[in-house]
């Protein structure tokens, strides 16, 4: 049995979980190989293809979505990738009753008022690793408008969201699900800490992601409840469980809220749980042999 793990040219051997995942699959009789998704010499046959560290896709999302639709056996599926690789999917989750950070979407050529009180965030709807995200005080209208114009000039829809200040101390919680079941959780430090107010993570063609401070975390019952709600919405929408999903939550006085649902190419932080790599290998093996 074989499986193809896709990555980007900058990470030809995958992310930090790559070696352990390949070894765990080998122990189950599955041979895994890494393949750069947009390598013109690559061919995609009947092998199961698992999307992993394709973190350059935001540079040309259209090409990435076209590629996904060209692969006969892809996990997660191409339609899921097309939906999830643009953060306008938050509309659908909010409409389904998931508690989502309040979000206004502003397309190029459109205008929308900026918040008049409290800090807020501007970020592109197509982006990863906080690239292009900025945190602004309510009196930094000129800087915020300039950042929005830069994103619009790049053809990006802009998300306007209130800054959830509790993340500065409590951090962000990421819940990792494998085959629809909760696996483990991690804590990420604030990606836009106070010192970045009125600043931003520049859009750079050379930057795949912004460094994250990560550690293991035990998810709270309230966080797990939101996570299960998200997975239930996905299950209802798709009729089946996805191979992998990551539910990213922020803390608020009213309870956790979704900031992003990562089901395209998320880091799964397998090394932060003793059994997570084996669980993921089991899930892949079951799909390879299906």
Give your account of this protein's structure.
- With 290 residues, the protein is α+β, with helices and mostly antiparallel strands.
- It has two domains: 2-84, Rossmann fold (3-Layer(aba) Sandwich), CATH 3.40.50; 89-263, ATP-grasp fold, B domain (D-amino Acid Aminotransferase, Chain A, domain 1).
- 28% of the residues lie in helices and 24% in strands.
- It has eight helices and 14 strands.
- The chain has helices at residues 18-26, 61-70, 78-84, 89-95, 141-153, 167-170, 221-238, 276-288, and strands at 2-7, 31-36, 48-53, 74-75, 104-106, 120-124, 134-136, 158-162, 172-178, 181-188, 199-200, 214-216, 244-250, 257-262.
- The strands form three sheets. Strands 12-10-9-13-14 form a five-stranded antiparallel β-sheet. Strands 2-1-3-4 form a four-stranded parallel β-sheet, with helices on one face.
- Strand 1, helix 1 and strand 2 form a beta-alpha-beta unit.
- Helix 1 crosses helix 8 (276-288) and helix 2 runs antiparallel to helix 3 (78-84).
- The longest helix is centred in the last third of the chain and has 18 residues, at 221-238.
- The protein is globular.
Q: What attributes characterize this protein structure?
A:
D-amino Acid Aminotransferase, Chain A, domain 1, five-stranded antiparallel sheet, 290 residues, Rossmann fold, 14 strands, 2 domains, four-stranded parallel sheet, alpha+beta
């Amino acid at each position: 049995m074989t499986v193809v793990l896709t990555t980007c040219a900058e990470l030809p051997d995958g992310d930090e979980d790559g070696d352990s995942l390949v070894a765990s699959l080998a122990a189950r009789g599955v041979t895994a190989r890494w393949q750069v998704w947009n390598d013109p010499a690559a061919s995609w046959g009947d092998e199961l293809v698992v999307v992993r560290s394709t973190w350059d896709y935001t540079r040309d999302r259209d090409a990435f979505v076209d590629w996904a639709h060209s692969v006969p056996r892809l996990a997660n599926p191409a339609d899921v990738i097309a939906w999830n690789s643009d953060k306008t999917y938050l509309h659908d989750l909010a409409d389904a009753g998931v508690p989502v950070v309040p979000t206004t979407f502003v397309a190029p050529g459109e205008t929308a008022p900026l918040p008049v009180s409290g800090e807020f965030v501007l970020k592109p709807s197509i982006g990863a690793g906080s690239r292009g995200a900025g945190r602004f005080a309510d009196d930094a209208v000129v800087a915020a408008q300039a950042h929005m114009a830069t994103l619009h000039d790049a053809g990006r829809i802009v998300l306007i969201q209130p800054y959830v200040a509790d993340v500065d101390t409590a951090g962000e919680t990421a819940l990792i699900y494998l085959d629809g079941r909760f696996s483990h959780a991690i804590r990420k430090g604030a990606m836009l800490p106070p010192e970045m107010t009125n600043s931003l993570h520049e859009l750079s063609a050379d930057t795949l992601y912004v460094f994250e401070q990560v550690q293991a975390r035990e998810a709270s019952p309230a966080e797990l409840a939101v996570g299960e709600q998200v997975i239930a919405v996905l299950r209802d929408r798709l009729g089946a469980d996805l191979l992998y999903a990551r539910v990213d939550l922020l803390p608020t006085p009213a309870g956790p809220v979704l900031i992003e649902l990562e089901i395209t190419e998320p880091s799964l932080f397998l090394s932060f749980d003793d059994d997570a790599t084996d669980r993921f290998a089991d899930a892949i093996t079951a799909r390879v042999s299906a």
